[in-house]
Structures are given as structure tokens and as C-alpha cells.
Amino acid sequence: MPCPDVLVQDVPAAVNRKGLSFQDYFDPARPAVLDARHCVRLNYEAWFFADDRSRDRFAADPLANCGLLTDPVSKQRFRPQRGAPLAHHGGVAFYFESDANRALFEQDPERYRLPHWQM
Fold it and tell me: What is the pTM of this model?
């Protein structure tokens, strides 16, 4: 069993270890399923959904649904707009405040992919 203060890469596993629960993003009356299939990650944030339909609805236009994100390079919170610089790493989409930040991330994504927070 992983140590409870392990760095958070597997968000569903960390959430389950903590015994947390969430509601579906679009329908708070329904409980979210806390597994990788029902989770969408953008930058350091994660959303959980009750079913594939809700997950796919969010994923079809993540920028319309996500709100503020944390730029992995600057660590500043920002609201990504259409056309925001984007990179993918480790199955996660990362949005950036600037092309310069994306370029730094792409040089060494492991350095930036996790903010070294513990859950």
C-alpha cells in the first residue's frame, strides 16, 4: 500500500486513500466515480464525473468548463483562453500563460509536471 503522503500523480488513488467523495461536475445530485476513467486532469487540477457522458461533455470543451488553472512553470493562477499554449505529458493536458512557459516546460516536463504537493 502506498504511503499516504506520497506525491500525487495518481489522483484517483490519492482521493480514494483519503476517503474523499465528490459529486458529478454537471449534476451535483449524482456522485462521481473516483477512478481514472471518470477523471479529467488539466495542469494540476482534476475533475471527476458520474459517467462517460459527463466526462465527455467536459472534455469536449475543457476551457469552457475548467475555470482557473495553475501554470506549471510560473505557478500563477490564470484562465486559459482559446488558443492558449498547450502541451501534453504523462496523459495530462497542460495549458500555459505564455509560449515561453510552454517552451520551458517542454525542455524538462518532469520538472514541472507535479508541483511537489503532497496529499
Answer: 0.83
